[in-house]
Design a protein that fits this description.
Structural class: alpha/beta
Radius of gyration: 21 Å
Order of helices and strands: HHEEEEHEEHEHEEHEEHEHHHHHHHEE
Largest sheet: 8 strands, mixed
Length: about 400
């Protein structure tokens, strides 16, 4: 245990998140893979054939129901604990980079990424069966653990368990993408409390940067105190820093206090304003992506507040999130001179980020034009996401 609480040590959470990929090892049968997992964690967990969690992932006709994780009970020092561990997959790239993917409602009714939610819904029958087993045992601590897409699913599993049961789960994610919009992140933060959310991410892992705002991570409140930033070299995205093996290495020999002491620079509103005012183009890298994401949030929110528009209410049929972002910025340009300045600065940064020559006049910033810029930024980022996932996964396995 750690810090005299029921929290898992970082290394155990990481080893479970890494080991669950062994379920889809092509070198042996599923039964043998489960047996090896059981043997490796026999001191802490009871893992057998009934522990298997299956789910469907993919888009359109490219869908497959596969072993997505385990649900198991603890033994010895972890008697009274339940573990739900989920893996990622290269098919995450299809869900994240589908520009037509919409939003749907989570267990609490908040907007979340529909691709993740569909996979979670396919997981629920196995999850409900495990919850029934939990209810028949003396379980006091539930741990939801996952890497990459597995981390996104772990968010949805934790919300569901907290909503549908009396359990107050812990959530541990490694290199997970953003799952939902502000209301979802805020709600999950309050449901679990920030102290029970352990979100770990490497500086040069691009997956935690997507989907872009208005999707945000939990914990959403006091995130500068409660997420876990892991330094990694450079400012460019690299597939190796998304791999679960790297995350396991980064937490080895460290407690949660050690990991929390490694802080990323806090981006305040005043820093965003100063960044936007700099009339210098920006290059495509992860540092600038984080600043651009925060700048989009700052400017769109400023315009939306002035217009009295909510981003998370009222998605009309055929009206995508990008349509709404473009609509708000375009209306902001005409609303007030002060807003015009911020919108044009943001468009300048976005265009330079993707290597385009900036427009000269606000009259060029039509709603369709702004939408096209958002789409091109998204395509640029999504291309890097797919490259990262292709480098990290092979046949669903995490290197």
């Amino acid at each position: 245990m750690s810090d005299n609480t029921n929290t898992l040590p970082p290394l155990l959470a990481a080893k479970l998140a890494e080991a669950v990929y062994g379920l889809v090892s092509p070198e042996s049968s599923l039964k043998d893979n489960i047996g090896l997992l059981s043997k490796n964690f026999s001191l802490n967990l009871i893992i057998n054939d009934s522990s298997l969690l299956t789910a469907t992932s993919g888009l359109g006709f490219i869908q497959a129901r596969t072993a997505f994780g385990i649900a198991a009970f603890g033994v010895n020092a972890y008697a009274g604990h339940a573990f739900i561990v989920l893996r990622g997959t290269d098919l995450l790239g299809d869900a994240l980079t589908d520009l037509h993917a919409g939003v749907s409602h989570s267990s609490k009714g908040w907007y979340v990424h529909d691709g993740f939610n569909q996979t979670f819904q396919s997981l629920k029958p196995d999850l409900d069966a495990f919850i029934e087993q939990m209810n028949s045992q003396s379980i006091h601590s539930v741990h939801c653990i996952g890497h990459s897409l597995g981390g996104a699913l772990a968010n949805l599993v934790a919300e569901y368990i907290r909503t549908a049961t009396l359990y107050h789960p812990y959530l541990y994610t490694f290199g997970a993408p953003r799952v939902g919009m502000g209301y979802f992140a805020n709600s999950l933060t309050e449901l679990l409390t920030p102290q029970k959310i352990f979100r770990l991410y490497h500086r040069t892992d691009i997956v935690p940067c997507v989907p872009c705002w208005p999707f945000i991570h939990a914990p959403s409140k006091q995130a500068d105190m409660y997420d876990y930033f892991l330094p990694s070299p450079g400012i460019s995205a690299g597939g190796e820093w998304h791999s679960m093996m790297k995350y396991t290495h980064s937490v080895t020999g460290k407690g949660w206090g050690d990991l929390r002491s490694q802080r990323e620079e806090l981006i305040t509103d005043s820093k965003i304003e100063a960044w936007l005012k700099k009339e210098t183009p920006i290059q495509f890298n992860l540092t600038n992506l984080r600043w651009l994401d925060r700048a989009i949030a700052y400017v769109v929110t400023k315009c939306a507040n002035a217009l009295g528009i909510s981003l998370t209410v009222g998605f009309a049929t055929g009206f995508t999130l990008m349509d709404k972002l473009a609509y708000i910025l375009n209306k902001g340009i005409d609303l007030a001179k002060s807003l015009t300045s911020w919108v044009m600065r943001l468009i300048y940064k976005m265009m330079s980020f993707i290597g385009l020559k900036p427009i000269a006049d606000k009259s060029e910033a039509t709603q369709e034009f702004v939408k096209s810029v958002f789409i091109q930024v998204s395509e640029k980022v999504n291309g890097q996401v797919k490259t990262t996932l292709n480098q990290t996964f092979y046949g669903g396995q995490g290197f």
